[in-house]
Amino acid sequence: MTEQTTKTVPAPGSQATESFSVSKLKCYLRCPAVYYYRYVLGLHAPPTSNMMLGSAVHAAIEHNYRKKLESGKDLPLTDVKEFFTANFNYSKGQVLWEPGEVPGKVMDEGVRMLELYHTESAPKIMPTLVEQVFQVRFENCRIVFKGVIDLVTDGSLIVDHKTSGRTPTAESIDKDLQATAYSLGLRYMRKTIETGIAFDYIIRCKQPKIVRFETSRTQADIDNFLKLLGQVMTSVQAGIFYPNSTGQFCSAKMCQFWDECVGGRKFNYAPTR
User: Fold this and answer.
1) Residues in a beta bridge with 203
2) The dihedral of CA 44, 46, 48, 54: what is its sign?
3) Which residues, 6 or more positions from 127, have their beta carbon under 8 angstroms from its beta carbon?
């Protein structure tokens, strides 16, 4: 494989003093005002039960694969469930629970999701990298792009794990910026090109199910991603923040900063430049 990511060659002696991530990129594209509240003002809202459940399931999956890196074998299911339960119980006090939500029932859902994944998917995966951190530096730029790849298999397949209440579309996966960021990160840090990118979705429903979506990225995809990344980073540095009141997330239910912004009507940021 000879394809190279030529636009991310670091400048000799360059020092990055700020960091950017795909989470920040997607946040800004969704609503620059949310970016301002979260990353400029540093405001944080308590996590929802969905967010906490996803984090706890992800942590248990990561725990198993880290051990599998050492032993070549999956942990017993009881060990993974115990790890999940301990993580869930530790985190549940930080959650903004909705009226009617019962933590014990949510935990039981997570256990069922984890049981399904551990028995159905984990035995088919042999990891070579788990939670691989990458940093991409750019010429004449003090910003470093950072990320963490969930897992890379022994066949050089990038795998990301998601929990969701609904099944996404294949089209949305093909456009997903996170997949492109992972491809960029692996090629830049390890000088290797992945064989593909897989998203393993654990769908949260009465009878949980696992749906795998596979996609790929070309050098052209990465080049377009880098252009978009540069444009967004330039906008952030220029102090360009505005509410996207037409977005589907602009509602009291979906936006964690609704009280501060109320659909853009209370947003009073003014650039100082």
Assistant:
1) 164, 209
2) positive
3) 65, 68, 69, 151, 152, 153, 154
Residue 93 CA to residue 113 CA, distance in Å, equals: 21
Q: Measure the CA–CA gap between 221 and 184, rounded to whole angstroms.
A: 10
Q: Could you tell me the CA-to-CA distances from 75 to 69, 82, 132, 133, 149 in Å, in that order?
A: 11, 11, 20, 24, 21
* The two three-digit tokens of residue 62, written as one number: 């990561």
| Region of residue 156 (left: phi > 0; alpha: psi -120 to 50; beta: else) | left
Of all helices (H) and strands (E), which one includes residue 22?
A: helix 22-30
Which residue reads 């950017």 in tokens?
A: 20
Q: What is the pLDDT of residue 183?
A: 98
Give the Cα separation of 91 and 69 in Å (integer). 27
The domain segmentation of the chain, as residue ranges, is: 1-40+127-260, 46-124
Count Cβ neighbours within 10 Å for each residue of 239-271 and write b for 16 or more, e otherwise: ebbebbeeeeebeeeebbbbebbebeeebebee
Helix (H, G, I), strand (E, B) or coil at 149: strand
pLDDT in tens, 202-236: 999 989 999 999 999 999 999 999 999 999 999 99
pLDDT at 4 over 50: no
Quick check: 183 and 225 in contact, CB under 8 A? no
- The pLDDT value recorded for residue 272 is 55
**This prediction's pTM:** 0.89
> Is the CATH number 3.90.320.10 carried by domain 1-40+127-260?
yes
Report, as an integer, the average pLDDT of 14-28: 82
Name the amino acid, one letter, at 125: I
The Cα 61–Cα 161 span in angstroms is 9
Query: pLDDT tens-digit profile of 171-207?
Result: 999 999 999 999 999 999 999 999 999 999 999 998 9
